[in-house]
Write a structure and sequence with these properties.
2 helices, five-stranded antiparallel sheet, 2 domains, about 160 residues, globular, mainly beta
């Protein structure tokens, strides 16, 4: 046991830099190639027929390999959301902004992304569409945000299981 009367150091703030090299597998490569063509490509489970976007190597429900590519719509429904109003360290966007789970038409799992425009107008059931950046890169950031579109809201009972 130490006789030092000072409390132990349990936390400190310091600069950190982490660099990663990620090698994309076949499913991710197909997804990223689609992004470069302004297409959103998921994968369908051959057992339960659910479409996952971004794609996964195997269905988390059926545990079988997923190999059937499916292009999903660039329009979808906000199933739930959160408005970020306060800055925090490392933040890329300037508050306020809305992060939302967006169930794209043709997909069975919501995609987490940003909804542009008036954050106070974002609501569950709101219909949105992808807005692409001009300089496409093989990353989901090539979808700048999702913007409200001129479609009526989706009734809650249609997407309630995703909330």
């Amino acid at each position: 046991m130490s006789s030092d009367p000072r409390p132990p150091v349990t936390r400190f703030k310091g600069p950190t830099r982490l660099e990663y090299l990620v090698t994309a597998g076949n499913n991710t490569v197909g997804f990223l190639r689609g992004i470069m063509q302004k297409r959103l490509i998921g994968l369908r489970c051959p057992s339960c027929s659910k479409v996952y976007l971004p794609p996964r190597g195997s269905c988390p429900i059926c545990a079988v390999a997923m190999t059937e590519p499916v292009e999903v719509s660039q329009r979808g429904t906000v199933t739930t959301f959160s408005v970020v109003r306060f800055p925090f360290p490392g933040q890329v966007l300037t508050p306020p902004y809305a992060c939302a789970h967006i169930l794209l038409d043709g997909a069975d799992v919501p995609l987490l992304h940003v909804v542009g425009g008036d954050v106070d107008a974002v609501r569950m059931g709101m219909r949105v569409q992808a807005v692409w950046v001009e300089d496409l890169q093989p990353t989901l950031a090539s979808v700048a945000w999702f913007a409200p579109c001129d479609e009526p809201d989706t009734p809650y009972d249609v997407f309630a299981e995703y909330v």
